[in-house]
Amino acid sequence: MHISEGVLAAPVLLGGAVLTVIGTAIGLKKTDNDRIMTVAILSAAFFIASLIHVPIGPASAHLILNGLLGVMLGWAAFPSILVALLLQAVLFQYGGLTTLGINTFNMAAPAVLCFLVFRPLLARAASWRFAGAFVCGFLAVLLSALLTAASLALSGDAFTHAATALFAAHVPVMVAEGVITGFAYTFLAQVKPEALASPIK
Asked: DSSP for 141-188?
């Protein structure tokens, strides 16, 4: 779901960059020193998952894992995703430096939003955790696809078809991410609950 260089309009790029700076600043402020290793590991997981992608016009379809980062890191998903996307842009030319802000926002904002909305459900009894984590994984990709499609659509009518194709291509990814997030979260809640952003009751 990387948007390439030279595609988006300047106001979209600027807006995404500003929002990413704000989100990253909040994420860094809320990240304790003892959580830095967890943030780094999940940033690496996000980096690797996004390497396997199918190009679709100016963007791509691939596993994102932003829902998993959201339920595990909360606001720290912003700096985690930012670092991973920066390395992908520099090392593999996925996305780009000018689109780094909007790409980060499109993936990190839904992750944080899903965490904030479903945090009470994630912290409940084990029978609710899988459902809450599944919804977070599914919705995070859904919202990211919508934001990316909107970014393309706002940059000109020529990208309307690309935006539609991008969203359609990510429907199966939404289901897969929901399942992965559900199983990963419930497993970690049992064996390593301190790794999660939301306390387990």
From this structure: HHHHHHHHHHHHHTT-GGGHHHHHHHHHHTHHHHHHHHHHHHHHHHHH
